[in-house]
Amino acid sequence: MTGPGAEVRAALGSDVGPVCATLARAFEDDPIARFLLPDSRRRPGGLRAFFRAQIAGDLLPFGGVYTTDDHAGGAVWAPPGKPTTTGLRAMAGLVPVLPFVLGAGLPRALRFLGHLESIHPKEPHWYLATLGTDPPRQGEGVGSALLAPVLARCDREGTRAYLESSKEGNLPFYRRHGFEVTGDFTVAGSPRVWTMWRDPRPPAG
After folding, report:
1. Domain residue spans in the chain?
2. In principle, which of 77, 125, 131, 177 could form an S-S bond with 64, CB 3.0–4.6 Å?
């Protein structure tokens, strides 16, 4: 699938490093990233470690990770039937991240992740764990292009999709792609987070 000046494709093992670096830059100012990794000097390393654990350590083999040829962004999905990568069950895979949240940050990280797990939908769906575009490339349509392969599959197969967003400004973007807000929450003093659900769209015509 062609995006703005770049080809959107399933990520390979060789893409993991560049995609993690891009996502770390994209999430540098994310409210939840700042909440869970408050030390701005250590945050980039913590984010890279988190995304590497999420992609290489968990989701890449399931074919739900997409990027562009120039690594302008990344979309990280968990397919239906895949145990969710949220919550306490994810902690074993996040051992590389723990040094960045040890101390006072660890208990609130555990409470936050535990809440994500407790509210995660139980019915089959594609879970958008991460979507990010390199800051210099934002506004070019890269994010929409990265979403397109899985959303088209959802529509074709009649499958739902789910995500959480920690930026209110991103809600209109997701609404344009068929997601609707289903709730919001804060945990342990965290910033507000919105949950969004997407029903499959009927075929055009």
Report:
1. 2-198
2. 77
Q: DSSP states of 123-186 as a string? A: SSEEEEEEEEE-GGGTTSSHHHHHHHHHHHHHHHHT-EEEEEES-GGGHHHHHHTTEEEEEEE-
Class of domain 2-198 as given by CATH: alpha beta
User: Which residues contact residue 135 at a Cβ distance below 8 angstroms, ignoring those fewer than 6 apart?
Assistant: 25, 26, 28
DSSP reduced 3-state for 73: strand
What confidence category does residue 105 fall into, taking pLDDT thresholds of 50, 70 and 90? Answer: low
| Cα torsion 7, 15, 79, 88: sign | negative
**Rounded (5°) CA angle 43-46-52:** 140
In contact, 174 and 197? CB cutoff 8 Å: no
Cβ neighbours of 66 (radius 10 Å): 25
Place of tokens 């936050």: 112
The end-to-end CA distance of the chain, in Å, is 22
pTM for this predicted structure? 0.89
